[in-house]
Amino acid sequence: MSIIDKIFTHPSMCDSSPVLIDIGASGEIHKKWKSIAKYSICIAFDADTREFQPVVSEDKGWKKLYSLNRLVSVLTNESSDFYLTQSPFCSSSLHPDNTALRPWAFSSLFEVIDYAKLPSIDLKTSLSEIGIDHIDWYKTDTQGTDQRIFDSLPEDVKNRVIIAEFEPGIINAYQGEDKLNTLMLYMDEKPFWVSDMVIKGSQRIDQEDMKSLNILQRKGIASFLKTSPGWCEISYINKMDNDSMTIRDYLLAWVFSNIEGQHGFAWSLAKRGYSLFPDDLFLILQKAVSYTH
């Protein structure tokens, strides 16, 4: 039996599968979750169905997969604004800041091509509807509202999340959006540490100048113009210094930390886990600094 199988067949896991939340799941569900999908409950939300198929399934490689066409917001509302953009990956409940975007090469992706009034639901209510009361891995890319949705969760739920991933903006892409600087200040007050940060971006060029380029130049613009920071993929791992954390939480944190490539932290968790819960599985985990997933 592999280490991962030993962990997920541990008695503490039997009636408490990992809960993985993906808000803004256009395209595909998180690749990092592939190795633990068969043990996990995944709940994926997206309001733009052009790249997303709503379904409830017990196959597709998951223990249970809920793919929900829901607009997740801070409050439940019968009618909320939703802006469909040229790229489905840029659609948002916030209107794009087209004036601020004008000097950027990718600004056309944010052009609003349709507008909808959609019912929205807060995350706590949505989870309650399917009988979920906790989150283990939280991933969100809501195009401007990542921080406020996370903040809307009950404090005890937030503080027990093991991994939290966000995709905040650096430049002004949406009107009134949550940005990287405010998110980092917010998370500094929470029991998390930054485990990864990947800066993404676009090229700074006015749209009038873009029009002067030929088709080949436009397609290869990244090869001759520098990419400047525009947004960030940032991950946090729980410090696990909360006395209420259980043996299940420590085992999951060990798995998740290894998935994130944070093998040193995983090693510390195995040692601390054994001191708190003298289960021999933690001795095995101490010897396995990383595992193949």
Structural class: alpha/beta
DSSP strand count: 11
- What proportion strand? 15-25%
Instruction: Please count the helical segments.
Output: 12
The helix content is: 25-40%
Shape estimate? globular
H-E string: HEEEEEEHEHEHHEHEHHHEHHH
Calculate the terminal CA-CA distance, rounded to whole Å.
14 Å
Q: What ranges have pLDDT less than 50 throughout 5 or more consecutive residues?
A: none
Question: Which tags fit this structure?
Answer:
about 290 residues; alpha/beta; eight-stranded mixed sheet; 12 helices; 11 strands; globular
Question: Can you characterise this structure?
Answer:
By secondary structure, the protein is α/β, with parallel strands linked by helices. It has helices at 3-8, 98-101, 123-129, 146-151, 155-160, 180-188, 207-211, 215-219, 221-224, 247-259, 263-276, 280-287, and strands at residues 19-23, 41-45, 55-57, 64-68, 71-73, 77-85, 112-122, 137-140, 163-166, 192-203, 227-238. The protein has an eight-stranded mixed β-sheet with strand order 3-4-2-1-8-9-11-10. A three-stranded mixed β-sheet has the order 5-7-6. A hairpin with a 6-residue loop joins strand 3 (55-57) and strand 4. Helix 10 packs antiparallel against helix 11 and helix 11 (263-276) runs antiparallel to helix 12 (280-287). The two termini are 14 Å apart.
